[in-house]
Prior knowledge:
Elements: H1 5-28, H2 32-46
Amino acid sequence: xxxxxxxxxxxxxxxxxxxxxxxxxxxxxxxxxxxxxxxxxxxxxxxxxx
Length: 50
């Protein structure tokens, strides 16, 4: 399905706004520490850097 340029731009802006809103909600809940810890564990355990 092809979207016209204006519809595509509106859709992209809507997704960008939704992503920014979800990031802000996650920061407000204090989840950035959880994400950081999970990322560190992946590097140290799965990839074998530790």
